Recover the amino acids of this structure.
């Protein structure tokens, strides 16, 4: 291991003291002067025509400063340019219970509430479409007539590689099963909130609980018809996102419009019920998957037919539709592969991106089928998985470039630590152990909005007082991204972490970063920050050389590592954007302890003196670092989906106790092996893995958003049950000691990938415990009991 | 239309705050909206998430469910009243050290509930710690790191 001072060491978040003392300010904690209070009136119908809206009485109420309806917004929006299908306020029809229909801004919350009650809306309810199967049926009244279809299909993706049919015919083991999945939601603790500040020139500063300030900026300008330069979006501290704050939202458009109309600052916050209406959670799914397996070769074919229930609007749904298929291309080679995935519009709150986006549900199916095949073949499910993992520097059949794969050693260690060999198949009835693997993208190689700019840019300044400031558009949503960026700057520049300040997620002050989603921040913003720091180091070294009377070092052009894996002739631009995974600074200086020392001569000066020397000319030291993904992927339709410069790999080994009387499943212990390349901040990586386990276990055993007639029935923490501390087992974590050639200091993602294997690992452990295979989530006690009864009856 | 404001005087973190407020105002609204102490978090307004916990005469209570008018005779402690400057409560230090803080939204409540627990019982057993942690919803950490921080404080107290 390299002798790093800061990276690789467990570091508390740089704002941990602010959070633990209540000093950290979240979107609803800001106090803008003289702000109006905004409220949204929501649809009581899942599907209805709006025959008329009368706001005159509301507008006439003293203290009301602005009232909006759908007529006040010309343009619809959506995070993906290909599905801008969502209005800020409903027009002509409502498509889900809870959809925003009108909004008011008033001097205080009481007046705003009174005004909402005075808005008269005449609805004509129409028959709602409540599930994906229903949505496939022909209709002359689809949710989105603009698509000019005779049904409610939003997106259909079909891909085929190799010859699955021939492979199935030749495979010794072929298993096909059907799986079903309930809707689950992010359940972050901070409800959405937004505050808008308007200045005398009509410029808007929007403080919002968002993972994607840049996309919110673009959407606000477009929907409000403003020049983009009039909008500034700032993310304050954020109380959890998990994908549920990664879209531009109607309430952001509404609050901004209210500010424009009234000329006043506006404050708007969600109730917990509003959060459930907003949703954007994991798609309810129904799928059939077929696996062909040959003990001598591994997986020979995998096919899936997948139906996902998207709810009323598009959100990230087109991406989800692809991810449900393409993310099956790991963690093992699948030489013959085909899938069809269809996303349907239904009259429910929309689904979108949720931790492990699109890859979680199919992973449950593929890893249960894998377990069935390995069991049938008489192979050890853990050892066989190790043997079948992707090899490094290979291409999948759909041309994903697999580079570093560090899971093999990690899973071997997890197998040993968990006592797998002593336990698997040997525990008494009712107790079991199971394993599953997964893989996930470290950022999407392609941007959502096509452009030629770098995927991530970081600006860095160093001033007379020695303060290093990292300006990054990346959003710290609680995962600790500000901390990891500061750590890399401190590492490269030879200072303590305290000396690095972070200005983040402010679209006026920070360069464009696409946001915190698709596990992209550490890899992409991280590379950009590290590159900016390396360039800053060169300025500092130049200052030191001048003071010491030395000539400046000559820097060779950065070269790819010897084992760098190119896809075809495509490679990253090493000179401009890429300075190597594990930088050898090539300057012959050591920066530490407040000194800058020339290694060859031993001459040294104070770090701050070098700053002063370097700053004499320009007055401020400023650098820019970029990250630009290498050009990747095949030439077929949809080849861009799932492309990532690198992939993480995870395995979970889980022990359970199943009560055959009640069907209750308890997870007793979990062991995780995760390959995030080099763990930049092991404390944060462990936190992400534990958080993934929590969410995966919730989806596996208890979580379910229940709709009745399109209305959410359990819109609160009492009824939407997530795991409590009593259900959380101890989690033993094995971090791989590998490195990725292209990640910053060799790092890959850790925030999402670990979730997916949790669910099948629990299912496989249930099979080891009581001999039944569950194929529907959540694996509630009643379902376990039903499966046990069915097995007993056989 | 609104009921007449009511003059309310509360002792918060050892200081008296007097405000003219709506008679039915909750303690959470009094703290956040009237005197600007935003460390108590609003997660649901229904007593379900636990993020708004404060100490009333040393006992943890959910401020979103408490009528502020009932508390004129009580001493109220919010997160702003725990640890001053660099001198943090051992649980605050332990939570930082063990990575028990991710997004931080549940953190004030996790701290206050723990402060009350350790004041009452310096060596709580696992069940008492679990029960205390379970009073607040955390969606980031999976609770393990928080549990470890609580355990560390229990152990530290023991060695004294």
């Amino acid at each position: 291991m390299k002798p790093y001072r800061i990276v690789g060491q467990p570091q508390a978040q740089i704002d941990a003291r602010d959070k633990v003392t209540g000093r950290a300010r979240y979107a609803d904690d800001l106090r803008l002067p003289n702000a109006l209070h905004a409220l949204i009136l929501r649809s009581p119908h899942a599907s209805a025509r709006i025959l008329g809206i009368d706001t005159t009485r509301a507008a006439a109420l003293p203290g009301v400063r602005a009232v909006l309806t759908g007529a006040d917004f010309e343009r619809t929006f959506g995070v993906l340019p290909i599905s801008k299908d969502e209005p800020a306020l409903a027009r002509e029809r409502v498509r889900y219970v809870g959809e925003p229909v009108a909004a008011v801004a008033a001097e205080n919350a009481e007046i705003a509430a009174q005004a909402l009650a005075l808005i008269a809306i005449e609805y004509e309810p129409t028959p709602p479409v409540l599930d994906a199967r229903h949505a496939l049926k022909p209709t002359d009244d689809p949710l989105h007539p603009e698509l000019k279809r005779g049904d409610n299909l939003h997106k259909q993706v079909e891909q085929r590689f190799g010859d699955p049919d021939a492979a199935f015919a030749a495979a010794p083991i072929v298993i096909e099963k059907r799986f079903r999945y309930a809707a689950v939601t992010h359940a972050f603790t901070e409800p959405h909130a937004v505050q808008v500040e308007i200045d005398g020139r009509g410029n808007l500063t929007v403080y919002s609980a968002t993972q994607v300030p840049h996309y919110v900026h673009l959407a606000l300008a477009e929907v409000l018809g403003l020049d983009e330069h009039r909008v500034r979006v700032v993310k304050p501290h954020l109380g959890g996102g998990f994908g549920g704050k990664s879209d531009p939202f109607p309430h952001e458009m509404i609050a901004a419009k209210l500010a424009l109309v009234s000329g006043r600052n506006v404050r708007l916050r969600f109730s917990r019920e509003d959060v459930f209406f907003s949703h954007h959670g994991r798609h309810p799914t129904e799928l059939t998957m077929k696996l062909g397996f040959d003990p001598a070769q591994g997986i020979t074919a995998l096919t899936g037919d997948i139906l996902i229930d998207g709810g009323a609007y598009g959100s990230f749904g087109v991406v989800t539709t692809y991810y449900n298929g393409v993310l099956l291309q790991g963690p093992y080679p699948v030489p013959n592969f085909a899938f069809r995935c269809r996303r349907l519009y239904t009259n429910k709150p929309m689904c979108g991106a949720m931790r492990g986006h699109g890859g979680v549900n199919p992973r449950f199916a593929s890893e249960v089928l894998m377990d069935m095949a390995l069991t049938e073949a008489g192979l050890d499910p853990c050892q066989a998985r190790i043997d079948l993992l992707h090899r490094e520097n290979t291409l999948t059949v759909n041309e994903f470039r697999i580079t570093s794969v560090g899971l093999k050693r990690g899973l071997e260690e997890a197998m040993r630590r968990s006592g797998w060999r002593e336990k698997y198949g040997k525990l008494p009835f009712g107790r079991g152990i199971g394993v599953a693997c997964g893989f996930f993208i470290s950022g999407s190689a392609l941007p959502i909005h096509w452009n030629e700019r770098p995927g991530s840019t970081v600006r860095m300044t160093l001033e007379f007082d020695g303060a290093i400031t990292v300006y990054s558009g990346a959003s710290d949503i609680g995962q600790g991204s500000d901390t990891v960026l500061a750590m890399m700057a401190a590492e490269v520049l030879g200072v303590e972490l305290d000396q690095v300040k972070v200005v983040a997620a402010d679209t006026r002050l920070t360069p464009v970063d696409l946001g915190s989603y698709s596990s992209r921040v550490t890899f992409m913003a991280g590379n950009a920050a590290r590159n900016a720091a390396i360039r800053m180091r060169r300025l500092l070294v130049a200052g030191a050389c001048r003071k010491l009377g030395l000539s400046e070092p000559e820097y060779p052009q950065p070269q790819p590592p010897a084992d760098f894996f190119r896809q075809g002739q495509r490679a990253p631009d090493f000179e401009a954007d890429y300075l190597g995974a594990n930088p050898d600074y090539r300057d012959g200086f050591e920066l530490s302890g407040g000194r800058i020392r020339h290694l060859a001569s031993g001459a040294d000066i104070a770090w701050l003196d070098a700053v002063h020397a370097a700053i004499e000319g320009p007055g401020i030291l400023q650098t820019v670092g970029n990250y630009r993904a290498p050009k990747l992927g095949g030439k077929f339709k949809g080849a861009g989906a799932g492309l990532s410069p690198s992939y993480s790999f995870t395995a979970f080994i889980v022990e359970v106790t199943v009560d055959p009387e009640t069907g209750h499943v308890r997870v007793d212990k979990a062991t995780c092996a995760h390959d995030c390349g080099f763990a930049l901040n092991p404390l944060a990586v462990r936190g992400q893995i534990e958080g993934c386990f929590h969410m995966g276990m919730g989806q596996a055993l208890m979580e379910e958003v229940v709709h009745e007639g399109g209305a959410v029935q359990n819109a609160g923490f009492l009824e939407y049950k997530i795991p409590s501390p009593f259900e959380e087992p101890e989690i033993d974590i094995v971090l791989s000691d590998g490195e990725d050639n292209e990640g910053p200091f060799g790092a890959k993602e850790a925030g999402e990938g670990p979730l997916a294997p949790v669910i099948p690992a629990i299912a496989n452990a249930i099979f080891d415990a009581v001999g039944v295979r569950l194929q529907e989530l959540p694996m509630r006690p009643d379902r376990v009991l039903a499966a046990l009864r069915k097995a007993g009856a056989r | 239309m609104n009921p007449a404001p009511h003059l309310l005087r509360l002792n918060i973190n050892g200081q008296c705050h007097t405000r003219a407020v709506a008679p039915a105002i909750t303690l959470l609204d009094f703290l956040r909206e009237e005197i600007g102490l935003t460390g108590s978090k609003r997660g649901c307004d229904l007593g379900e998430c636990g993020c708004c916990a404060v100490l009333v005469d040393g006992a943890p209570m959910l401020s979103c469910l408490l009528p502020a008018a009932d508390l004129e005779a009580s001493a109220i402690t919010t997160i702003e009243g725990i640890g001053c400057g660099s001198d943090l409560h051992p649980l605050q230090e332990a939570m930082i050290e063990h990575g028990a803080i991710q997004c931080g939204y549940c953190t004030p409540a996790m701290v206050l509930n723990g402060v009350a627990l350790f004041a009452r019982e310096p060596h709580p057993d696992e069940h008492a710690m679990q029960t205390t942690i379970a009073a607040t919803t955390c969606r980031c950490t999976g609770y393990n790191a928080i549990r470890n921080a609580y355990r560390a404080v229990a152990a530290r107290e023991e060695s004294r």
User: Anything to note?
Assistant: Chain A has three domains: 32-126+189-240+245-278, 358-445+642-793, 449-627. Residues 521-548 of chain A form the longest helix (28 residues). The longest strand of chain A covers residues 298-311. Chain A has 20 helices and 31 strands.
